[in-house]
Amino acid sequence: MSVTETGAPRGARFALTMREAVIASLDDAIAALRQGGPVRLRSIPFSSTSLGAAGFLAIIKAARKAVPDVESEAVLDCGDAPGHALGALRLAADAVSLTAPDDVLAKLAEIAAQTGARIYRTSSSGELHAILPAKRPAF
After folding, report:
1. Does a structural domain hold residue 2?
2. I need a surface site. Which of 39, 87, 114, 135 has the fewest CB within 10 A?
3. Higher local confidence (pLDDT), 10 or 64
4. Is the peptide bond prior to 45 cis by the omega test (within 30 degrees of 0)?
5. Domain assignment of residue 78, given as a range
């Protein structure tokens, strides 16, 4: 699946399209990284509830240590829980995906932009759509 993107998490440069891999374990993440990058490592749906942000980020950190020098973006699926998304951003997640009202997504995107992270809306078909922070008027 390709996703049109403008910008990149944590200062990295990503192509407009990247290969995606849904991961449920450290072995999955390592296998995806070994295939080369850039790659988007997506958690299974609702992972913020089952695994938690800290658990997902520990898997990503270990995988990146095992397979260094491969560009990747890790996306934690937060289902419909914006609080989980906020917690993941506080733990320095690359990106989170969720289903939430537009105003909630916009607020999360503004918070994420401060750290270089990214917010995605998850569509009913599972596709990711980047949410960009609103531009503030110049004074």
Report:
1. no
2. 135
3. 64
4. no
5. 9-131
In a domain, 139, yes or no: no
Q: Does residue 62 lie within any of the structural domains?
A: yes
Strands 118-122 and 19-23: unpaired
Q: Quote the pLDDT of residue 37.
A: 87
Residue with tokens 């991961």, as numbered in its chain: 23
The mean of the pLDDT values for the chain is: 85
Tally the domains of the chain: 1
Sequence-separated (6 or more) residues with CB below 8 Å from residue 74: 40, 41, 43, 56, 57, 60, 93, 94, 95
> Over the stretch 84-114, which tens digit does the pLDDT of each residue have?
999 999 999 999 999 999 999 999 999 999 9
Q: For residues 20 and 22, give the distance between their C-alpha atoms in angstroms, rounded to a whole number.
A: 7
Furthest C-alpha separation in the chain: 50
Q: Is residue 109 part of a domain?
A: yes
